[in-house]
TrEMBL record:
<keyword id="KW-0378">Hydrolase</keyword>
<dbReference type="GO" id="GO:0004407">
    <property type="term" value="F:histone deacetylase activity"/>
</dbReference>
<comment type="similarity">
    <text>Belongs to the histone deacetylase family.</text>
</comment>
<dbReference type="GO" id="GO:0016787">
    <property type="term" value="F:hydrolase activity"/>
</dbReference>
<dbReference type="GO" id="GO:0040029">
    <property type="term" value="P:epigenetic regulation of gene expression"/>
</dbReference>
<keyword id="KW-0479">Metal-binding</keyword>
<dbReference type="InterPro" id="IPR000286">
    <property type="entry name" value="HDACs"/>
</dbReference>
<dbReference type="InterPro" id="IPR023801">
    <property type="entry name" value="His_deacetylse_dom"/>
</dbReference>
<feature type="domain" description="Histone deacetylase">
    <location>
        <begin position="50"/>
        <end position="333"/>
    </location>
</feature>
<dbReference type="InterPro" id="IPR037138">
    <property type="entry name" value="His_deacetylse_dom_sf"/>
</dbReference>
<dbReference type="Pfam" id="PF00850">
    <property type="entry name" value="Hist_deacetyl"/>
</dbReference>
<dbReference type="InterPro" id="IPR023696">
    <property type="entry name" value="Ureohydrolase_dom_sf"/>
</dbReference>
<dbReference type="GO" id="GO:0046872">
    <property type="term" value="F:metal ion binding"/>
</dbReference>
<protein>
    <submittedName>
        <fullName>Acetylpolyamine aminohydrolase</fullName>
    </submittedName>
</protein>
<keyword id="KW-0862">Zinc</keyword>
Amino acid sequence: MKRFFSPHQTGHAPLRELNNGEWMDFAESPARVSSMLAALGQCEAPIDHGLGPILAVHDADYVAFLQSAHRDWLKAGRSGDAIGYAFPVVGRRKLDLSRIDGRLGQYGFDAATPIASGTWDAAYWGAQTALSAFDAVAGGGHCGFALCRPPGHHSGKDYFGGYCFLNNAAIVAQRAVDSGLGPVAVLDVDYHHGNGTQDIFYERGDVLFASIHADPAMDYPYFWGHADETGQGEGEGATFNQPLARGTTWAGYEPALDKALNAISQFGAKFLVISYGADTFEADPISFLKLTTQDMHTMGQRISTLALPCVTVMEGGYNIEALGSNVDAFLSGLEGG
Ligand code: OKP
Ligand code: ZN
């Protein structure tokens, strides 16, 4: 399986995040990359596809905001990472605000996703990494892996949040549709619900979004991922959420995965995008499912029975020591190892 990564992606290095009312070290740290590279070995550098495929998913005003957000923060006389604190919860509408704090609230949905000087460059190259993994599969490979960082699945067409800025999985899924390779299924197995991916395809019948995640009644992102969210309009039935209780082990995860795989077959998917997060691991510091490294391998094997061309994009996983082995276990399972 071809693997892609760009060193630009480690330039995104916020210092700290707000957690339970206190500052803590930023969990989605560049050190995650070292752990993965050590386990995976050599990755290829992505090719620059430009902004086109990003703008096929994200709004131009949002992308322009991301490009200048940290500079605007510095221009406002601030230092450190840009963080919003006021959000238009009621009646959110397009406003052309100039003040950076207004813009951070307009385009963000949480106060735990700091923007640093290297954020845009890292997010941009993360998307290019995903697109290059797609090329490798579209060109005849069976599977490709995109070591994306920052992750993407919480980012919607015009918003960031949950450590995510550009939705790498959605960018690949849209690219697959535009290349005539659909229908496409996105299988999201990160611990957290992929609200951004769900939103992007919520009214679309050509992309199935199937997710297994911690019950949002208990865990981030709270406002999405409930079982009664099933899609709308032409997308009715093309969103499939399976929330799990904290503490769930493989015994509870496996039947949910089987249901998701069945749904993907039923849907008639011809192309698969996997949002893989290793934060379902039993020793993840911010998550509460109980999968082992061996379970990651089994998960990969199960998914490989779909026998679909697939691109895996990296999402979360915060136990840095085990991260590399977990990703490696998943990918070797997926390769049928
Ligand atoms: C990103 B991914 C505040 C807690 C909220 C947000 C979690 C984002 C996870 N410190 N944290 O899905 O792994
Ligand atoms: Zn996660």
